[in-house]
Amino acid sequence: MGVLDGKVILVTGGGNGIGKECALLAAREGAKIVVNDLGGTLSGDDSGDAGPAEKVAQEIRAAGGEAVSNSDSVTDYKAVEGMIEQAKDEFGGLHGIMNPAGILRDGMFHKMSEEDWKAVIDVHLNGSFNVTRASVNHFRDQEEGSYVLFTSTTGLIGNIGQANYGAAKLGIASLSRIIAMEGERKNVRSNVIAPFAWTRMIASIPVKDEAGKERVERMKNGMRADQVAQLAVALCADKSKDVSGQIFSVRGNEVVLFDQPRPVKSVARLEGWTPETLLDQGLPSMKGSFMDLGATTTVFPYEPI
User: Fold this and answer.
1) Is 165 a catalytic residue?
2) The one catalytic residue among 77, 147, 165, 302
3) CA distances from 279 to 274, 282, 284 (A)
């Protein structure tokens, strides 16, 4: 018996990395899987390839599970609707979606092209909208459904050279929270995971010195995609029905629960503020509670917190 017996799960980005491990583990835990992967390059600038998704589906079937493949893009709303219908047609329903599909187009913000900004937002943030919006009414009608979306510490904390990626990933965290709030009465759950894992995304980032090489080796050996999949699968299980609206991170064998932004300090002035009094009194009184930029170090992916 598996924790997902009787469930049908759609896994986007399921041809490689975290998505692949999510699909394989969910199948071992009893779910029927729709494996989606465009099969494109890491930058998402090609037409894709149906091979990676079908290869994972074949691996699941060879192990005795049930799976079909899909090579459409999460950026196409109609195509995502087709994924939902495919799950219903092939397996009779849909109960959960894991959405780690993504691309990278890194660069310093003052050099970032409009194309690179839009491409990353489209796959990550718009893609998350597409998979949730296309399925949410189905989940609400059956009063059951779980989303596992993927954020990043680049969005939650920040990272130099990834303004497009960070903006999209922080947006996903907010999207997930509101879906969870609105879906509570209908048993529609949504959580996000910020993964630390060795994937082709991380492998694509150049290592510039020996210290960086050592950090990457530690990550490669100790922070694997299959460790992230354990939590993703658990969040789709019935036993986690009271877990929703949360932000998690997985770092090796460690699962981290993140705080979410809340007020930390306020200042008031009976007669109201002016620019001058804010500069002289208001802002200085808050300075001790300011968040450090931390801009001299790389938080993700080389230096896990």
Assistant:
1) yes
2) 165
3) 8, 6, 7
Tens of pLDDT, residues 162-206: 999 999 999 999 999 999 999 999 999 999 999 987 655 555 555
What pLDDT, in 10s, does the model give residues 204-234?
Answer: 555 666 766 666 666 666 789 999 999 999 9
Q: Which residues of 221-248 are buried (b: 16+ CB within 10 A; e: fewer)?
A: eebbbebbbbbbbbbbbeebeeebbbbb
Q: What does the pLDDT read at residue 304? A: 36
Pull the structure tokens for residue 274: 């002016």
Which of 146, 20, 3, 10 shows the shortest CA–CA distance to 90?
A: 10
Asked if residues 42 and 104 have their Cβ atoms less than 8 Å apart, the reply is: yes
- The C-alpha angle with vertex 156 and arms to 243 and 3, in degrees rounded to 5, equals 25
Provide, rounded to the nearest whole percent, the portion of the chain with pLDDT above 70.
86
Residue carrying the six token digits 């913000």:
109
Average pLDDT over residues 258-274: 96
